[in-house]
Each structure stands twice: as C-alpha cells, then as structure tokens.
Specification:
Layout lengths: L1 H18 L6 H9 L15 E2 L5 E2 L1 H14 L5
Antiparallel strand pairs: 1-2
C-alpha cells in the first residue's frame, strides 16, 4: 500500500512540476517593457487593501502585488 501511495505522490509532484513551467510570453514582455506592474486590489477591505492616513497601502492583496513586482523587477515599489 505504501509503495502505491509513494508512486502516486511522485507522479503528482512530477505533474505539478511540469505545470509550473508555463511561459508567460508576450504578457510578461509587455509588463517588463512598461517598467511597472499594474495590479488591481479590492480597496477598502480591511486586511486586504486599505490606505492609512498618509496614503500608504497595506493588506494581503497589496503584499501580493508588491511581491510580484519584486519578483519581476527586484523592486517592490514598481
């Protein structure tokens, strides 16, 4: 039973690994060419995207957008 489970787990992980090698192509090229990531968030929802009194955005959606920008450009503010 354990061998069957192990074989199924290896097959599943292999498939996930193959699926994660998708190519963004022209969309990614357009984002990099523009020099900034345009990332939409649901504003005004506490915990997801809320601006403080000084206009600084915080929340989960904002953090995801900043992480994507950092991965693409090496700078979370782009």
């Amino acid at each position: 039973m354990n061998r069957i489970f192990a074989a199924a787990a290896i097959a599943a992980l292999s498939t996930v690994g193959l699926a994660s090698t998708a190519h963004a192509g022209k969309d990614l090229d357009a984002i990099k060419g523009r020099g900034q990531l345009i990332c939409g968030v649901n504003t005004g929802v506490a915990g997801f995207a809320v601006a403080d009194n000084q206009g600084k955005w915080t929340g989960l959606d904002v953090d995801v957008c900043r992480a994507a920008a950092a991965a693409l450009f090496g700078d979370s503010r782009r």
